[in-house]
Amino acid sequence: MKPIPAEFRHNRWPLLGSAIGLACGVNAYAPVSSMFLRQLEREFGWTKTAAAASLLALPLMALALPLVGGLLDRYGVRRPALASAITLALCLLLLSMMNGSLSVFYGLFLAMMVFGCATGPIAYTRNIAASFQTHRGSALALALIGTSMAAMLLPPLLAGVMAQRGWRGGFQLLAVLALVGGGLAFALIRDPVQRGEGTARLEGLTLRQAVRTTPFWVLCVGVLLISTAAFGFVSHLQSIVEERGLPAGSTPQLISTISFAVLVSRLVVGSMLDRFPPQRIASLALLVAASGFSVWWFSGASTGLALVAALLIGTAIGAELDFLSFFCARHFGVRHYGQIYGCASIFFNLGIALGGLTFGLLHDASGHYENAVVFAGVLLVLASAAFAKLGHHTHTPIETNQ
């Protein structure tokens, strides 16, 4: 039996705290958003378009990420993340009390995404990137498993609560989880800056210097292509399944398969990033995901082939945040990780919005989703080529810990 590496022994509790914080943070809402929207539509008579318009808060929230990242770089993660968790819980409680006004819903939803964003990857991956060097890819993958576990476990738990107490009880459950998860994360994680850890770990480029480098823009474009392809497909999955003539119960099965693929891909890809040239691993993983769209194209009405396709496509959905976190720290250091990650995250969230819009436009133009599926596969091939160009470690430390 191999001994546990020293990096994991010394940082096991902060790693657990980061995973818990991510599992109970603002990202926990996305996988269950449709459960709330369906009930709100029925109770208040909202149209699907009106309810889904709240998701436009994602790109708006992304604009605040560089500012939030700067605060995390300056003050550390623990206190901002705890304050963000408390604010997130407050917004969720207020959502549980609303009376059906769309303007109130939009306002609270936007506030939840903006003020709760420090409970997401921009915060909890920062300390992991600073505390791990040799096993950084594996550590980031383990931390981000928190979001995967939430996506797998929260829907059935939430369904039971909402069956008894409706959507109001659902929002209240999420509020409790935000408080509990934020409190546990605060107790378990540590801020390397405050602990005075080695200066090499806290060196790196400034945001101004990072945006002048080729790797920054290659990374941003690559993340944009991945999120556009992957989330465009997922956001229209129910309609795509119906168009293919697959059995009515196929969608939940496909969602579960994708969630499983996300979990596995994070572990496997994260470990491989530490052992092999990371740009090649990223490129290969995206080609595997692109092959999933090829399988879907030829699957017809075969449920088995559709499940294989979902398994392959899930590789991209599981790996994009791993790539963003890993390559930000690798190429630009961790001194200003929050700001740089925040700017790159704008492209990730923009891709989520563009994906749903593009799939809808391509469907409306042709009357089917076949062209959209091909388009998504092409985007992943282009993303694979982009990550292959990232090359070797390039960041030059310019600052030391004061």
TrEMBL record:
PANTHER family: MONOCARBOXYLATE MFS PERMEASE, MONOCARBOXYLATE TRANSPORTER
Native source organism of the sequence: Rhodoferax ferrireducens
Keywords for this protein: Membrane, Transmembrane, Transmembrane helix
Pfam families assigned to the protein according to its UniProt record, in alphabetical order: MFS_1
Phylogenetic placement of the source organism: Bacteria, Pseudomonadati, Pseudomonadota, Betaproteobacteria, Burkholderiales
InterPro entries: MFS (IPR011701), MFS_dom (IPR020846), MFS_trans_sf (IPR036259), Proton-linked_MCT (IPR050327)
Identification of the protein by name: MFS family arabinose efflux permease
PROSITE patterns, alphabetized: MFS, PROKAR_LIPOPROTEIN
Bilayer-spanning residue ranges: 12-30, 50-69, 81-98, 104-125, 137-158, 170-189, 210-233, 253-269, 281-299, 305-328, 340-362, 368-388
Major facilitator superfamily (MFS) profile domain mapped to chain residues: 1-395
